[in-house]
Design goal:
Layout: H1 7-13, E1 17-25, E2 28-33, E3 37-44, E4 48-49, E5 58-64, E6 67-73, H2 74-77, E7 89-97, E8 100-106, E9 108-115, E10 135-141, E11 144-149, H3 151-155, H4 158-161
Parallel strand pairs: 2-11, 6-8
Antiparallel strand pairs: 1-2, 1-9, 3-7, 4-5, 5-6, 7-8, 10-11
Length: 163
């Protein structure tokens, strides 16, 4: 006999839009829309090849699945830190805009969460100037403030294009 499904429990688990949750620093998490997230990987730092004369947040290039992608230190891009601390391995969230992938190095990837997109509030108070172009807003989840990031703005950052 097949088990019965509790539709109410199933609906509760699927309420809201899926987001990839990442840790930016010990007391700050952010989310990226899953529609733009391709995958999350853990890779040795030696697989990322540094490229000279790039902004400090650009760590280099990664050959992943026969594709070369740029890898960026997300907390550094957002003005939160000087470098991702782990020197042995990188946690990389690969996001995509059309055919353009970008690897975002973060201290920790916390998995997928479902959030109500209409609950996103515009940024208020003092926000770091480096963060503003990439911040859609914020929302509260279980006493935690989550920054909702704009993946398109990150991928098409003027820092990468030189504009």
């Amino acid at each position: 006999m097949l088990p019965t499904l509790d539709l109410q429990v199933l609906q509760q688990k699927t309420v809201g839009d899926p987001y990839l949750k990442v840790l930016l620093k010990s007391d700050q998490a952010a989310v990226l829309p899953m529609g733009k997230a391709q995958e999350a990987i853990d890779t040795p730092t030696r697989r990322v090849t540094p490229v000279p004369n790039m902004p400090a947040c650009v760590l280099g290039l990664l050959n992943h699945k026969s594709r070369v992608i740029w890898v960026v230190d997300l907390p550094l891009l957002l003005g939160l830190s000087t470098r991702v601390l782990n020197t042995q391995r990188y946690n990389i969230a690969i996001i995509r805009s059309g055919k353009t992938p970008l690897g975002l190095v973060v201290p920790e990837i916390r998995g997928v969460v479902r959030l109500a997109s209409d609950a996103v509030q515009p940024p208020v108070g003092e926000v770091l100037p480096a963060l503003m172009p990439y911040l859609r807003g914020y929302l509260m989840q279980s006493q935690e403030t989550l920054w909702v990031l704009e993946t398109e703005a990150i991928i098409h950052s003027a820092l990468f294009s030189g504009n």
